[in-house]
Amino acid sequence: MGRIAEPIIVHKRGKSFQFTLNSTCGLPQRVCAEWQRKSFKTLPEELFNYRNPKTKPKAKSNAQVLVAFLKKKLEVGLSAKRMVPEDITVGDWLQKFIHLDTSPRTGINIAENGSCSEDTLITYESYFKCHIKGDPILGLKMTELVKQDVIDLSTRMSVKKIGGRRDKNGNVTSPGREMGGTRTFVGVLKLFRMAFKNYESANENWLNPYRGIKEPKYASVERDAFLEDEILKFFAPGVLLTTMELAVCAAIFWAGLRRAEVFALKPEDLDWHNQVINVRRSCQCFENKHKRKLGPTKGKRNRKTLFDPILQGAIKKLWEENGKHEFVFSYKKPFRGSITPGASWIRCNFEKWLERASIERMAKSRRLNPHTFGMPVRRRWQ
User: Fold this and answer.
1) Rounded CA gap, 191 and 133, in Å?
2) Which of 9, 20, 136, 163 could anchor a disulfide with 176, C-beta 3.0 to 4.6 Å?
């Protein structure tokens, strides 16, 4: 009789560890095939804290955590396939689809070593609460759907008002505009299309009502980078008043870091000798201070970017004032429950910086924001 393969094989490569999963760990062979000689840095976002084991026993323990995680996710996916199709409504399926713990699509992606963005699921959940909840299609059973139902859905969504305003008494002061043709409209319909496609894969005999209907397109507004004279104005004396403001803006513009990457930067990511920054992590759910956590960079791609002398000087001065902490851009002591500034800090201050620099934010349809501020450098380094 042949020797039974170990469930988890851990091997060292250089200074880091790799692992291989075998079917004896209790996972299907197709899933184990996706986890052959993998680095711990490829673990899902939810297991971000398990990505850097220092010893072999710790590495094996971390791999066991992954196995338990994958089993749980697979159970979600399998339970979706075992549903009785006649019993589930459109509303029930959408609710299952948009939550991280129950989404069969998320479970399959993670089990097959794919990516999963909690921010995306939060966006879908907001679509459901703000625009989809209460729509007649939610009460229909998935097996009853026909093409006309989704066409009627598109019609209802296209004339629905968004962006309206109410006074303190709840009276409508501005009805807003129709959703049709907006990014929100495309996002809502895209959510339905993806949820139905996933249901179709779990129920092979089901006829997807979106077959033959083209996906709507949205022509996004072209983002404009700052002009050269505007950059000079932005970094002119009297615009950035504190060392933190100067350091953060230098990181966004001179290094091309995204906001969520700025506040996830750690001192060990700075290569002072070669004058480069190793961008290894980012803040997930950056806009929500209660759910904010460390995770991989956008697209799970680590990269290097320029460590400009201006940024170096700003960081040194920041550390002289506030001390050196776990994160590069930190206060001297926690402020409002956090050691680093957050999304609202940049959003509110950005308006003030533009005003002090006499830069028009939306002149001639140009849309300037912190993301466009660092575009030129990102385009060169990505």
Assistant:
1) 13
2) 163
